[in-house]
Write a structure and sequence with these properties.
By secondary structure, this protein is mainly alpha-helical. 77% of the residues lie in helices and 0% in strands.
């Protein structure tokens, strides 16, 4: 028996990334991002409850360019995680395991998350009067 110094559990350094593996990793990352977003939501609500001065600090953060980019990223994370969760639900029911369907639904998850994010931001901007 020969020992070939191969890893016992090949991981990212051995396999080339495929859409299913990249989307799986992104699903986990967006889950963590949504946890951070939930904590930021609690901070915003606590600031609102603490009074106008404290709420103004939170409001100034969220209307800054960094806060807006963070909100945009959290919006995409929410919709990506939702679409990916629906895809996983279909897998749990036994559908979509063949390579062609898995690739197609992966691209649909990305497109769906992007479209939902864009629609949400366009709607929010039109309601707030940012867009004419």
């Amino acid at each position: 028996m020969t020992n070939k110094n191969r890893p016992l559990s090949p991981h990212l350094q051995v396999y080339q990334p495929q859409i299913t593996s990249v989307l799986s990793i992104l699903h986990r990352i967006t889950g963590v991002a949504l946890t951070v977003g939930a904590l930021l939501l609690v901070w915003w609500l606590a600031a609102a409850a603490a009074g106008p001065e404290t709420f103004e600090i939170a409001r100034a953060f969220w209307v800054s360019w960094f806060g807006q980019m963070l909100l945009l990223g959290l919006t995409f994370a929410l919709f990506y995680h939702l679409c990916s969760g629906i895809r996983h639900l279909a897998w749990d029911l036994g559908y979509g395991f063949d390579l062609g369907t898995a690739t197609l639904t992966g691209w649909l998850v990305i497109a769906g998350a992007g479209a939902l994010t864009l629609a949400t931001w366009l709607y929010a901007c039109s309601v707030t009067g940012i867009l004419p």
